[in-house]
Amino acid sequence: MPASARSSVLASSTPAVLGGAPAFDEPIYVTRPRVPPAPRFNALLAQIFEARWFTNNGAIVRELEAALAERLGVAFCRTFCNGTAALQVALRALDLHGEVITTPFTFPATVHAIEWNALTPVFCDIDRNTYNLDPARVAELITPRTSAILAVHVFGNPCEVDALAALGRAHGLRIVYDAAHAFGVRHRGRPIGQFGDVSILSFHATKLFHTAEGGALMGPDASKVARLELLRNFGIVNQDEVCGVGLNGKLSELHAALGLALLDDVDAELAARAKLAARYGEGLAGIAGLSSQQPAPETEHNHAYSIIEVDPEAFGLSRDELHAALGAEQIVTRKYFHPLCSQNVAYRGLPSADPQRLPNAHAVAARVLCLPLYGELAADAVDRIIERIRALHAAAPRVRAALQQA
Ligand code: T4K
Q: In terms of pTM, does the model score above 0.70?
């Protein structure tokens, strides 16, 4: 039984910051990685040891890539040592130049991959409700220097793919999707990896499907695969020729084995998350000052994250105060994605990083809180988290005073 499910639910309903017992006697993390059945993983390890082949396009990596391409409904899927390297290679493979329009409301890796390719990130504001790039604002930022749009399906919520594709066609731009959060999502009847020129996935341990560390590139057009493979492996063509500035982006056989052993359990993970997400939705409904990301229509969501947005006036506590008060309950929440990438010292000097140009991104980053959600989280733990959020709302003035004194 996972630790979170074992975690005893204590009796007191007085918030811990007001002197009550914490809701949990051990931390409930924002996420926990799923582990595969040991026999399945051990059998793959035995296969690796027998072959004495640990990396460099091994049999397990190839098997995982084939299985992923089929499961994700894409023409190709190639694994990487992490999602960041996959994104670096994606941008390099497309021979981009000049400026890449992107969102500031994302994990730092998205924007770093642009900068590592000696391209200039141009920050664009997000839609206030979906938290994704606003295509109307993107259109205003396109110049002759723009070569691509790097959009993020943030928290697994699909971007406005049709509007972005239209901009790409009209201006001759590449569309790259950071789909790090979007494993298994389908939108308008199509797998998420079929949109854009190429999409990246992250298989970090915090993701619903993972290889401890890992990532992938996937897309609808397999003609790019040879170039991606070249760049993933130092640019080595063969023993007599190296061309292009590649990196070492390979996934090891050990990591691939973890992924292959977990793949059969993804449906169970998705189903469990959907149930818990519905439970959160019902339990939190009607609490003044709480709302959530607007889900894209016609979408099979993967519930990669459980997101609430806190209106400090109506809820009575700010996002940061709720984060701190839940922390005292042993409920570990995250302020994804605060601070914005545009606030990073490396980027804040860019004209597009001016906060006045990014009002929605700043508003969202100040209010969003990510609650614990993962397949093995116990339903009664979700109930207790909801109950604590209600209790903190009910006692908000006293909670605020207690936090200020602490
Ligand atoms: N693009 C986007 C939009 C991304 O979100 C990411 C990564 C990337 C690109 C880059 O992909 P990678 O190169 O990472 O493959 C985590 C992850 O490190 C990062 O992969 C992820 N996004 C980001 C959203 O979250 P942190 O700093 O929040 O992780 P950390 O260590 O605080 O872990 C969060 C919680 O997970 C912990 O409270 C406990 C739990 N945990 C974590 C690990 C590592 C476990 O239970 N077991 C574990 O092994 O960044």
A: yes
